Amino acid sequence: MDAAPKRILIADDEPDILEIVSYNLQNEGFEVYTAKNGDEAIERAKILHPDLIILDIMMPKKTGVEVCNILRSQSLFQETIIIFLTALSDEGSQIKGLETGADDYISKPISPKVLISRVNALFRRLNKEKGKTINVGNVCIDPVRFNVAVNNNNIILAKKEFELLHLLASKPGRVFLRNEILTQIWGTDVIVGDRTIDVHIRKIRQKLELDCITTVKGVGYKFEL
Amino acid sequence: MDAAPKRILIADDEPDILEIVSYNLQNEGFEVYTAKNGDEAIERAKILHPDLIILDIMMPKKTGVEVCNILRSQSLFQETIIIFLTALSDEGSQIKGLETGADDYISKPISPKVLISRVNALFRRLNKEKGKTINVGNVCIDPVRFNVAVNNNNIILAKKEFELLHLLASKPGRVFLRNEILTQIWGTDVIVGDRTIDVHIRKIRQKLELDCITTVKGVGYKFEL
DNA sequence: TTTTGTGTAAACTTAAGGTTAAGAACATGG
DNA sequence: CCATGTTCTTAACCTTAAGTTTACACAAAA
């Protein structure tokens, strides 16, 4: 769902820095925009609504700290991640930077790799709740939202149906024995009839309108596209 | 609401570091706990549920990275802020650290002031996610003013109703288990009957005149437009 | 053909929520 | 401190649809 590329705005007065940093971030799949000074940074930020802004502290026409203050005072930029990038590695400015409301602070010279790692770490924290979703082809199963989407159409499954699909899809291609399914979903102490699984399978097939669950006669079921 | 002091766990094998860092953090009003090695860190984390964990990378009985991996694999520690603290300032370990799912990375020797600034910056970011107004479609929830607006019509909700709506709307689309709702809103020690949540949900649905709370039978509720 | 295993539809059972009203618990303003 | 109004919780009952079973049809293998 949230597959839109993250938008990053970098503001620095040194063209070299802009180029190196944007080159590396673009390679990581980010959408990168640049600004040469503080005013331009603010202007572009208002138009672009970036997810993350990297600000050089020492810039003409408003310093990074000033830019940060201005942006943070607007509700639109409360969410935006802001990183300061600067040659000053002295403690005083580090503290000032973080107190302004920046999320991170990196001293130059810095390797692109470290920058990228930090950027990713910040995005990771912002996102959370990912990785858990299962994506197989055009089927997307999200255990947190408890919903299933096929070709981006949400489909409502009942609890047991969802659990069953989730189990099968957790290892696409692998066959689950009927017994295995029973113990995984119903537990060892609950005993249900033979046709119960079939009925649930049927309902899933019906609702998904997609032939993704294959019967392996005498053995069990598997999820496959 | 969230006036409880933040709980911080520090793990390092050097007693000096533990003392300096905890002294400084305590002065800032944090509740500080310590661990001497990786295993102890995990053990104490499970009992204490700290808001933030500072891990030395080089520790006996599991390194900081190992501890981070173990904790992050548990849902309880998904939200916890983790900072690595280490003497290694080489690039490689910085990257590895951040990719493990840490939120920040600080090299020794580091001044207590900088550490505190970073800790505060991380907490600030975390808090921002509370207290801020939630806007989903034509629904606007402002926890500061304590009011809800649908299509710019203010609606008066009682406290519990508001808390419940705010919780659900904080992660639109995500399903909240009944248990989760109970602990988030009523706390762990208060015990309320089974139908209590339902009644509040009903009132919200009634007042909002909008079908935005979906029941997921056998699971919980979710906010969705 | 018989056996074995699965698909399907419909009927049944029941657990999970919805609804309502009533009375505690709490707050507010004289 | 009481009167009043509001919010919260509970209990009893109602409704719904999830989950299961039954019964039978069908297909493939033996």
Helix/strand order of chain A, N-terminal first: EHEHEHEHEHEEEEHEHHEE
- CATH structural architecture of the largest domain in chain A: 3-Layer(aba) Sandwich
- Low-pLDDT residue spans of chain A: none
End-to-end Cα distance of chain A: 20 Å
- Helical fraction of chain A equals 40-55%
Mean pLDDT level of chain A: 81
Major sheet details of chain A: 5 strands, parallel
Biggest interface, chains and residue tallies: A-B, 31 and 33 residues
Question: What spatial form of chain A do the alpha-carbon principal axes imply?
Answer: elongated
Corresponding CATH superfamily of the largest domain in chain A: Response regulator
Helix count of chain A equals 8
Q: Say what oligomer this is.
A: homodimer
Question: Which structural category fits the helices and strands of chain A?
Answer: alpha/beta
Level-1 CATH class name of the largest domain in chain A:
Alpha Beta
Strand content of chain A: 15-25%
CATH topology group of the largest domain in chain A? Rossmann fold
Strand arrangement, largest sheet of chain A? 2-1-3-4-5
- As for the number of domains of chain A, it is 2
Alpha-carbon Rg of chain A, integer = 25 Å
* Tally of DSSP β-strands of chain A: 12
